[in-house]
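Onboarding guide, step 5: your first structure request.
Type a short instruction followed by the sequence, for example:

Predict the 3D structure of this protein.
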Amino acid sequence: MDWKKLLSEERLRPSTRDSRFEGDKRNEFESDYGRIAFSPAIRRMHDKTQVFPLTTDDNIHTRLTHSIEVQSVAKSIGFDICSRDKFLNHVEGDLEGNLKKEQTLKEYLIRRIPTILASTAFCHDIGNPPFGHYGEDIIQNYYKELFSKEEYKEIDLTKEQKEEFINFDGNAQGFRVLTKLQILSDRFGLNLTAGTLASFLKYPCTSREYNSEEKGDYSNKIGVFESEKEHLDKVREKTGLEKERHPLAFLMEVSASPFFGPLKSRGFRLR
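The system replies with structure tokens like these:
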């Protein structure tokens, strides 16, 4: 892996900035965070709860609250990683050509890795349906039953498309939201950087790869719909990743893990 590529600031579509943005001192990853923070999809998470819906108690964890908390943990991990000599020594050879005059490697990374992790943590649940993983099960079971009915066996869908419904996953829907459904001006969605999108992808795998004989940790679930395969291919090309996950995707996943039990259980106690 080449960290120069892993931290690619290239976007799916080249960004077009006019003179109004000449004073913007943010780097591309900091711009990504702003695009995510101001997206309608983020605001909609306020109405999705972690445990149960339609509560009148204002202490309940919503998806938005959860995402803000995970974001805080992820950013802290990013700062910690950027302060570790072992990591700095590991990436130094890949990134030394990117440093500005008198800029240290730590200074360079501290403006990038914590921000990428904050962005991906902020939107890691952006594609989840209501009721979280239970909602995914409902969708999966509905389509399993639907496609088993005689009148729907010849429905005009490819095998891969049927697999996407039967194995519906919020991660794939999240990638679709970020790269297509949250339209700024065209079909590239929020048009985030390849580095941020690669770090978001928990399972950089289409239904074809999911069903292939060569499976790995990256393909335990369908993480990208065939309709967004073009975007996945571009992300892979720009980051140098093939059938593997971005290192920061693992850190983002770790950031969310402390919340699976204790904080979600608060909802049950309040109920």
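Each response can be followed by summary notes, for example: Confidence is low (pLDDT under 50) at residues 267-271.
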